[in-house]
Write a structure and sequence with these properties.
Layout (H helix, E strand, L loop, with lengths): L14 E5 L6 H10 L3 E6 L2 H10 L2 E4 L17 E4 L8 H15 L8 E5 L28 H10 L4 E7 L1 E4 L2 E2 L2 H8 L5 E3 L5 E6 H14 L5 E4 L2 E5 H11 L8 E3 L1 H8 L15 H7 L8 H8 L1
Parallel strand pairs: 1-2, 1-4, 2-3, 4-5, 5-6, 6-11, 7-10, 9-13
Antiparallel strand pairs: 7-8, 10-12
Helix pairs in contact: 1-6, 3-4, 7-10
Bound molecules: NADP nicotinamide-adenine-dinucleotide phosphate.
């Protein structure tokens, strides 16, 4: 049975390959696809990932996105591919480019052109300030993720697949995703750290809502379309830190501001994205795909956990 709030199952079960099915986005997508009665095959680079996929209900196939030549030619017939894998390695752009070099031509041999959902991200839109970015807004990518722009354009232009792009907002669950750091600090009685300023706004989406967007895009989106997956346009990060302080009964705990250079030195250049003040619109997905995010009050979800 499909959970309340999810779109009903499609007329036909689709056979989908997911890259990154154990990740914070991917695991939710696998759950949603299975709930909609699709067949899910997941790429697994280790026995641990394979076990994680089996536990979710997906069928693992062995492979690494850094070595696609060893598995891309052996793929079964597919209706769709969802790419939400990322190595966060210094050469993540090179790995992704090489993956597309091998993977896209491999689909030319499929009987039917599959859909290929590529994952971009909110950090491709730069600091928007008070303006609200849409799918029509020119990219202004964070340097560490600039490689995604030519790669997503390649997927949209590829002849062997029907390319679709989803740009997730910052993905959370009340205790995980981009909230994990706050949740851990709060649980251990530490002051939460906020990058740059409490006033920095993050566009947000709950992992389950984002997963339903991937499923809707797979089932309904027109080829060559792009969607921003933002349920909440922009939410001040200080409010998130303070909600976690309230949750542990320490409402007066002031977040500690850390500089963007400090967080980049600690986590890598990609972490500069935490300092981007952004507002992003999820209107197109709501209007064209009937996307209905159910999680729109993160503060209540955080405090409610307590
Ligand atoms: N999370 C967000 O808030 C957010 C927002 C916007 C955009 N995005 C983008 O969405 C994508 C996924 O993000 P995420 O947060 O879900 O990442 P994540 O939680 O770190 O998951 C990454 C996934 O990729 C897999 N993976 C990594 N390296 C691999 C390799 N060499 N071979 C095969 N699989 C590999 C991991 O598998 P194992 O570890 O099990 O091996 C895992 O399933 C990234 O491109 C990210 O930039 C994320």
């Amino acid at each position: 049975m499909i959970a309340a709030g999810r779109a009903s199952a499609p007329e036909r079960s689709l056979r989908i390959l997911i890259l990154g099915g154990t990740g914070s986005i991917g695991a939710a997508v696998v759950g949603e696809l299975l709930a909609r009665e699709h067949v899910v095959i997941g790429l697994a680079r280790s026995e641990r990932s394979a076990a994680g996929l089996r536990e979710l209900g997906a069928m693992p196939i062995a492979g690494d996105i850094a070595a696609p030549q060893s598995w891309a030619a052996k793929l079964p017939e597919l209706d769709g591919i969802i790419h939400v894998a990322c190595d966060f390695d210094a050469d993540m752009g090179g790995i992704d480019r090489h993956l597309l070099d091998i993977l896209l031509p491999a689909f030319a041999n499929q009987a039917k052109r599959p859909r290929f959902i590529y994952t971009g991200g909110c950090w491709l839109f730069g600091a928007t300030g008070d303006a609200v970015a849409t799918e029509e807004t020119a990219f202004d990518p964070l340097p560490a993720f600039a490689w995604m722009v030519p790669n997503l354009r390649r997927v949209l232009a590829a002849r062997a697949v029907d390319g679709i792009v989803i740009h997730p907002a910052m993905v959370y669950t009340p205790d995980g995703g981009v909230f994990r750091r706050f949740a851990r600090d709060a649980a251990e009685g530490r002051v939460s750290r906020v990058v740059a300023s409490e006033h920095v706004r993050w566009p947000l989406v709950h992992a389950d809502d984002l997963a339903s967007l991937y499923a809707l895009a797979l089932e309904r989106a027109a080829p060559q379309s792009s969607y921003i997956g933002a349920a909440i346009e922009g939410f001040a990060v200080g409010r998130i830190a303070r909600a976690f302080a309230r949750r542990v009964g320490a409402p007066d705990l002031e977040p500690r501001i850390v500089s963007v250079d400090e967080i980049a030195a600690e986590l890598g250049e990609w972490a500069r994205g935490y300092a981007l003040d952004q507002r992003l619109s999820g209107t197109r997905a709501r209007q064209e795909l009937g996307w209905q995010p159910r999680h729109v009050d993160p503060e209540r979800e955080i405090v409610g956990l307590g």
